[in-house]
């Protein structure tokens, strides 16, 4: 990937056509966006999962549209090469089509997103946002904003009736014009069928290896937490323990007067003896 190769919606669509896998990561700020971009990620999702990962909430339901704009703006200021997609948070697209379009415009205009992501089968809302020239990514399966209706963060589509519903919803989302669909926490067999039958890419998270792409949360795959993670998360580093040990060494050096040393200290150019109160 060349330095000036900014990834676009067309590039993402062509990944599937060219049978190339799509890499995506959920990130929320300027440093993580720069790291993801330098690593060569295709898509940065500014997820409303920031409610849990950054804000410490038990779910995503308290995240506001202002939170998404704020975090998206931090990501966009990094000028990352990946496509920037932002979640529309709970109740930002539920009250009316007009308000939904207005909120999507705010995310793009003030946050700098290049597309938005919407959970579930909100056909009229999605169509209107696309009509406003804003690309939309769909999201089916386990949709975290529906956690109360679903009775928790549970795998969806294990039984045929629910699997058929998810499959039909995927076809409808493609028909209305979404450029890709996130499939979260569904059986691999169902994700494979959907991926084979759609012309647009699928991005899996807990949906097996047959999706056109995969997405994980920045903090999860780098091991920023010592909390229990979902089954589908693979940790590629353990930065939590590394960070704790680094800070312990910092404290130890302070207590032993080893920090700062002479090279980490500024010195006056003149003799300061004789200074008075």
How would you explain this protein's 3D organization?
The chain is of the alpha/beta class. The chain has a single domain (9-238), classed as Phosphoenolpyruvate-binding domains (TIM Barrel), CATH 3.20.20. Helix content is 40%, strand content 14%. The chain is built from eleven helices and eight strands. The chain has helices at 9-17, 30-39, 50-53, 65-77, 97-111, 123-131, 147-150, 160-176, 188-197, 218-221, 239-255; strands at residues 22-26, 43-46, 83-87, 115-119, 136-141, 180-184, 202-205, 213-217. An eight-stranded parallel beta barrel has the order 1-2-3-4-5-6-7-8, surrounded by seven helices. Helix 5 links the parallel strand 3 and strand 4 (115-119). Helix 5 crosses helix 6 (123-131). It is elongated and about 85 Å long. The mean pLDDT is 96.
Going across the biggest sheet, name each strand in turn: 1-2-3-4-5-6-7-8
Task: Write out the CATH superfamily name.
Answer: Phosphoenolpyruvate-binding domains
Question: Average pLDDT value?
Answer: 96
Q: What is the CATH architecture assignment?
A: Alpha-Beta Barrel
What's the CATH topology label? TIM Barrel
Helix proportion of residues, in percent? Answer: 40-55%
Approximately what portion of the residues adopt beta-strand conformation?
5-15%
Distance between the termini: 61 Å
H and E order: HEHEHHEHEHEHHEHEEHH
CATH class: Alpha Beta
Strand-helix topology:
Layout: H1 9-17, E1 22-26, H2 30-39, E2 43-46, H3 50-53, H4 65-77, E3 83-87, H5 97-111, E4 115-119, H6 123-131, E5 136-141, H7 147-150, H8 160-176, E6 180-184, H9 188-197, E7 202-205, E8 213-217, H10 218-221, H11 239-255
Parallel strand pairs: 1-2, 1-8, 2-3, 3-4, 4-5, 5-6, 6-7, 7-8
């Amino acid at each position: 990937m060349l330095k000036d190769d900014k990834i676009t919606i067309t590039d993402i669509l062509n990944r599937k056509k060219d049978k190339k896998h799509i890499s995506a990561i959920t990130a929320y700020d300027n440093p993580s966006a720069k790291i993801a971009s330098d690593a060569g990620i295709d898509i940065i999702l500014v997820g409303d999962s920031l409610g849990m990962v950054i804000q410490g909430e038990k779910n995503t339901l308290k995240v506001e549209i202002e939170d998404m704009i704020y975090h998206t703006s931090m990501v966009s200021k990094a000028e990352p090469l990946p496509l920037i997609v932002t979640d529309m948070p709970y109740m930002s697209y539920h009250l009316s089509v007009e308000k939904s379009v207005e909120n999507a415009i705010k995310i793009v205009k003030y946050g700098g997103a290049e597309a938005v992501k919407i959970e579930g089968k909100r056909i009229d809302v999605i169509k209107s946002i696309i009509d406003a020239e804003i690309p939309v990514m769909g999201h089916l399966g386990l949709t975290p904003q529906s956690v109360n209706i679903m009775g928790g963060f549970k795998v969806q589509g294990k039984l045929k009736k629910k699997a058929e519903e998810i499959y039909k919803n995927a076809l409808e989302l493609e028909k209305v014009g979404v450029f890709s669909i996130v499939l979260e926490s569904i059986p691999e067999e169902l994700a494979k069928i959907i991926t084979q039958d759609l012309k647009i890419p699928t991005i899996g998270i807990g949906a097996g290896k047959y999706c056109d792409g995969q997405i994980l949360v920045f903090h999860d795959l780098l091991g920023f937490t010592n909390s229990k993670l979902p089954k589908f998360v693979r940790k590629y580093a353990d930065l939590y323990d590394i960070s704790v040990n680094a800070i312990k060494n910092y404290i130890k050096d302070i207590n032993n007067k080893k920090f700062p040393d002479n090279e980490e200290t500024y010195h006056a150019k003149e003799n300061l003896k004789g200074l008075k109160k």
